[in-house]
Amino acid sequence: MTAEGRQAPPHLTARQEARRRRILQASARLAGRGGFDAVQMREVAEAAEVALGTLYRYFPSKVHLLVATMQDQLDGLHSTLRRRPPAGDTAAERVAETLMRAFRSLQREPQLADAMVRALIFADRGVSAEVEAVSRQTTAIILDAMGQERPTPEQLAAVRVIEHTWHSALITWLSGRASIAQVRTDIETACRLIA
């Protein structure tokens, strides 16, 4: 486990994991200040105090790095949600509250949100493992909010639709085509699929 309580990848030593954490934190800081374009590999390496070659060994491209940054942000959110679970009488209410909490977190750093979402959009098959990790983490967050450890195939299908709706809502909000009220309505509508 790392200091934040998250499981370190099994192939990394404690020192390598600390280096990886510095890289992800530097990426998030730079993206938070200037969005996707502000994340330049050389600047990330300098901010994380690692050699540029070392950075490329961990993350072969900016898209890999920003998708991993999104996974890291979701890991942090998941830890927070476990400490302070969402309120709601039904699974649909708890999932909607969870996703709106995630959305509010991203609202506080719209440049970072934009950079991470752009990376997901730009990701090709070479980044599929990282994108899949983000999807698994999002699914785990939703299932925890539902209170489901062993979801049925129908529940997993509903979770996929909810996840797609959440990602789409982020994109439309970031592009200025949806208000926060519209995002909430879309998320709440999708969450009704759980029932």
From TrEMBL:
Residues 17-77 form the HTH tetR-type domain. Residues 40-59 bind DNA. SUPFAM superfamilies: Homeodomain-like. Keywords: DNA-binding. Signal peptide: none annotated. The keyword ATP-binding does not apply. The keyword DNA-binding applies. GO terms for molecular function: DNA-binding transcription factor activity; transcription cis-regulatory region binding. Pfam families: TetR_C_20, TetR_N. It comes from the Bacteria. This is TetR family transcriptional regulator.
